[in-house]
Amino acid sequence: MNEIISGLFVLGGTLIGSAITYFSSREEKNWKKIKSHVSLLTDQLLAYNKLEEIYSQKLSETNSKDIAPITIKIKMRDEVAAMEEYHRPEITPARIKSIRSRWL
Question: What is the domain range of residue 68?
């Protein structure tokens, strides 16, 4: 009788240990995927921020009214904010890098 009870405990422990191993490896796989997405998104945000900087500089140079690049950036961001489905873009490259270093 004791052998049966001991066997059941060993079997239960093995099943629980296997379940823990399975779920923790699954979580690790999901975490790697999330980190990959964070990396991609932060890279894209930095690139779009640089693109905004280049565009505003070019518009400033070609504009006959001598509008500063920062003024162009502010006006364009306000236009985006006026659209219903978008928030005003305010994230800075420093904030993007901070998020990236925190999660990666």
Answer: 2-103
Question: pTM value?
Answer: 0.71
Distances (CA, A) of 35 to 24, 29, 42: 16, 10, 11
- Tell me how many domains the chain contains: 1
Q: Is 77 exposed, middle or buried (0-12, 13-18, 19+ CB in 10 A)?
A: middle
DSSP 34-77: HHHHHHHHHHHHHHHHHHHHHHHHHHHHH-TT---HHHHHHHHH
Confidence of residue 96 (pLDDT cuts 50, 70, 90): very high
